[in-house]
Amino acid sequence: MKSETLAALQTARAQRQAVTLATRLNDAAETLIYPDKADGEFADDAALVAAARRAMAIGRSETVELGGQKFFLNVYVPPARLLIVGAVHIAQSLAPMAAMLDFDVTVVDPRGAWATGQRFPGVKVVQEWADEAFDEMGLDVSTAVVTLTHDPKLDDPALEAALKTDVFYIGALGSRRTHAKRKDRLAEAGITDEQFARVHGPIGLNIGAKSPAEIAVSILGQIVEVRARRLEALSAPKVAAA
After folding, report:
1. Alpha helix ranges (H) inside the chain
2. What number is the average pLDDT over the span 86-103?
3. What is the Cα–Cα distance from 126 to 123, expressed in whole angstroms?
4. What are the residue boundaries of the structural domains of the chain, listed by start?
């Protein structure tokens, strides 16, 4: 691997940017393919770029043969990330559970009395308003966002920001009545019905959860399910139209 290629991969990792390194097997010629650009000898090869981006979406490295040439597509994608808005009791259960499943977990809450390292040991805690924190972090397709505060001042800006991105999961705590009111408020902020339909609310799988830990299990189960279904859809072979 060339030194400049390694440097570019390190930069992409630091910025949570997905990238595929396409290497021609007969001579190790390299091309870096990102979601929005490509750089290298085969940057203008539309078939290779499409194959690399599909592998990137699935998150699976593979060898492909295109035009009589074999390429190894080495996929680098950011780890799954869970952003929890609200340093509440449910979050105290959800954060360590998600970390056990290798999610990169961050708890976001501007309330300093709640958002502390003592309440969330081993978890990154950000004492900021969620929309401002999201702007600094950058949201991507490997990210899940959940809002747990029941406070529109905290939850609504987070949901509005998340709905304008391609995060793979958005969930909001609250009853059906609360969710309906939330929809009306976000509609006033310019969120369409189609966008709002992405929000899982009431949040979590319907498993009869009552305690904070049980609710956390239902939320995490739904996140895992949504991610798995998405990857299944992306990896399913496309059927040509008759």
Report:
1. 3-14, 46-58, 89-100, 130-137, 152-163, 176-188, 193-196, 212-235
2. 96
3. 10
4. 3-76, 81-231
> Can you identify the CATH homologous superfamily of domain 81-231?
NAD(P)-binding Rossmann-like Domain (3.40.50.720)
Sequence-distant (≥ 6) Cβ neighbours of residue 101 within 8 angstroms? 80, 220, 224
The pTM for the full model equals: 0.83
pLDDT at 237 over 70: no
What is the pLDDT averaged over residues 167-183?
95
Task: Find residue 108's DSSP bridge partners.
Answer: 85, 126
CA distances from 136 to 91, 132, 223 (A): 21, 6, 23
Q: Which two tokens stand for residue 233?
A: 């859809």
Residues linked to residue 72 through DSSP beta bridges, in sequence order: 23, 63
Question: Band of the pLDDT at 235, cuts 50, 70, 90?
Answer: low
